[in-house]
Amino acid sequence: MVFWERDWWRKWWEKRRGDCSDCECSWTTAIVCLVILAVLGGALALLILAFAVVKPPTASADDALLTRFDLAPAPNSTSTARPPLQLLSYNATVTVSLRNPNLHYGITFGAVAAAFSFNGTRFDESGTVPTLDLGARKETTVRLRVGAVGRALPKLPAAGAVEFAKQKEAGVFDVEVRLDTVMQYKGRKAKCPLGIVCPLRLQLVDPDVAATAFQKTKCTILRAKISGC
Fold first, then answer.
1. Which has the minimum average pLDDT: 123-137, 200-214, 215-229?
2. Are 178 and 114 in contact (CB under 8 A)?
3. Is 19 helix (H, G, I), strand (E, B) or coil?
4. Is 45 or 194 the better-scoring residue by pLDDT?
5. 219: Cβ–Cβ under 8 A, 6 or more apart, which residues?
6. Over the chain, what is the mean pLDDT?
7. pLDDT at 2
8. Are β-strands 192-203 and 220-223 bridged in parallel, bridged antiparallel, or unpaired?
9. Tens digit of pLDDT for each residue in 46-105?
């Protein structure tokens, strides 16, 4: 019985040693299989991101210049008017960058309407940009230039005029630029209203003097809650 047990252990050990002679090959095969699975999984995830998931565009105000921003009461307004009619004279230039972060889908933008506001009051809505096509992972810039002399601001409240005087003294104005358009992902039917809001802090500069550096500003993207957008 003892000899049988010893023989059994010997055969078991030899069998284990024989199995271990293939251990290196087995581990190598397992590692190769894991690498292949990881690559396939990554490729599948990339395809899902590219085709199944769509991301909205991103935007930033890369450059801006304010060379005139003057507010004065209208000549025919009276001191009893509440509030008196204000006239605004201004010159401003803004450059906005639009980026498409999608790996596969291009984006088409309809005509873009631009509006400039101060203290919640719009003072210019003349800026427009024609239709744009933005390919996947591409970027484009939109340059806006607005100006007027003595434009009436009937909706500017008295508090807005006070805030204007305060910022005028500091030589720095908080101006908001908003772009409104309708975008469409190429290959999809949904047409998606889109708003881009860029809050700008602009230093008033003399046009005959070198402009000060503008701090790049991230814009907020406003999307409609529509399927496919």
1. 200-214
2. yes
3. helix
4. 194
5. 58, 59, 60, 61, 96, 196, 197, 198
6. 83
7. 46
8. antiparallel
9. 555 545 678 999 999 999 999 999 999 888 765 555 677 899 999 999 999 999 999 889
Is residue 134 within 8 Å of 57, Cβ to Cβ? yes
> Mean pLDDT throughout 32-54?
59
The 10 Å Cβ neighbour count of residue 26 is 11
Dihedral-angle region of residue 150 (phi above 0 means left; psi in -120 to 50 means alpha; beta otherwise): left
Tokens of 183: 């975008």
CB neighbours of residue 13 within 10 Å: 10
How far CA 131 is from CA of 52, 134, 213, 224, in Å, comes to 26, 10, 30, 19
Contacts of 40 (CB under 8 A, 6+ apart): none
CB atoms within 10 A of CB 56: 18
For tokens 């105000």, name the residue.
61
What does the alpha-carbon distance between residue 105 and residue 54 come to, in Å, rounded to a whole number?
A: 7
Look up tokens 């806006």; give the residue. Answer: 144
Walk across the sheet containing 217-218 and list its strands.
139-153, 86-99, 58-73, 217-218
Instruction: Specify the amino acid at residue 162.
Output: V
Rounded distance, CA 122 to CA 156, Å?
9
* C-alpha angle 110-115-118 in degrees, rounded to nearest 5: 160
| DSSP secondary structure letter of residue 215 | P
Q: Tell me the CA distances in angstroms from 205 to 67, 154, 173, 208, one per residue in order.
A: 5, 26, 11, 9
